Amino acid sequence: MRISILQADITTREVDAIVNAANSSLLGGGGVDGAIHRAAGPELVAACRELREARLPHGLAVGAAVATAGFRLPARWVIHTVGPNRRAGQTNRALLVSCFSESLRLADSLRAASIAFPAVGGGVYGWAARQVAEAAHDAVTGFGASHPESALEVVEFVLFSAEMEDSFSAVFEQPR
To answer: Could you give all domains of the chain from N- to C-terminal order, each with its CATH number?
Structure first.
C-alpha cells in the first residue's frame, strides 16, 4: 500500500472511496461531514435516510462503518464512520482505531483500490492530532499485515490543517 499525507479538500479527491467522519444519525453535520454532504448533493442524505430505515434504526455505532454511493463526488463511494467523541467522555482509543480499520475493511470488500481519510475524531470530537495519527497508523499497519491480498493500493490522509498534516507525517515517517 502506498500512503499519502496531504492538506487538501477531501471532497475533490479522485479516489474510489472517501471516508466521512459522520455522526451516528448519518444525516449530515458540521466539518468534513457537512462538506461531504454538500458536495455529494441531496442524494446522499436520501441514501443515508434509507440506511437508517432499513438497517440502522438507531444510527451507526461508534467505530463502525457503512458505505453509500458517492453521488456528485468524484469518489465512487462514501464510507461513513463515527468516531468516539472525546469531549463527551468517549475516550476508548480502540474505537478510534476501529473507525480506520472498519473503513479499510469495507473499502476492501468493495474492491476499492484507493481510499481517502480525514482525521476522524480530530475535529470537534476533541482527539489530539497525534492521537488520531497514531490510531490511523495502527489501523493501516494492522490491515496491511492481515490482508496481504487486498485490492487497496493507495491510502490517502487528506487533512484540514498544517498541524494535523505535520502530526500524521511525523507518525507515519518514524520507525515504530
So the answer is: 2-173 (3.40.220.10)
